[in-house]
Amino acid sequence: MAVDRNSGVPGTDDSPIIMGRIAGPYGVKGWLRVVSYTRQPNKLLEYTPWYLRRNNAWQASGVVEAKRHGRVLLARLPGCEDRDGAAQLAGTDIGICRGQLPATAADEYYWGDLIGLPVVTLDDTVLGTVDYLIETGANDVLVVKGERERLIPFIQGQVVALVDLDTRVIRVDWDPDF
Fold it and tell me: Can you say whether the dihedral through the CA atoms of 51, 59, 33, 55 is positive or negative?
């Protein structure tokens, strides 16, 4: 799941950032199970509109109703009236406009900014690209996919030497054989 930084929302200069994903239908009345990538899942509900990415294009969507249900959110979107309609949206990324997010500090990054970035060692060995991240409690972990999958702890100053969003690269102090 890589964020296409060049596919912005039509009519704006704001690039969407992925904040969740539609996991599938819930029930028979068009409800959707939504996995939120925010630390507090309910936070996704504070952003409107949602932008849904289907076939590599973003489309704005309102939210008719939404509520928390355990670790996931349940939502109903306009035009999604039954289980079949909900099933067609399974796997759809949910984005919001970057301008809706609070600014980050110099050493902080949104996960969506890291996803899709190449990961390179200090001696220029390409390990792959960030596919997604895992929150472990102690630190986040980059899941890097290349010739094989690697789990690299996101520990700035020790493992992660540099995150350069302008040149789109993450440099790590990491043994390629590990």
Answer: negative
Q: How far apart are the C-alpha atoms of 171 and 176, rounded to whole Å? A: 12
> Is 121 in the same domain as 62?
no
Q: What is the radius of gyration, based on Cα positions, of the chain?
A: 17
Burial of 127 (0-12, 13-18, 19+ CB in 10 A): buried
In this prediction the pTM is 0.67
Q: Which residue from 111, 155, 157 is spatially nearest to 134, judged by alpha carbons?
A: 111
The answer to whether residue 178 sits within a structural domain is no
Q: Residue 152's beta-bridge partner residues?
A: 142
Task: Reduce the DSSP state of residue 106 to 3 states and report it.
Answer: coil
The total of structural domains in the chain comes to: 2
Q: Which tens digits make up the pLDDT trace of 99-141? A: 888 888 888 988 878 989 999 999 999 999 999 898 888 899 9
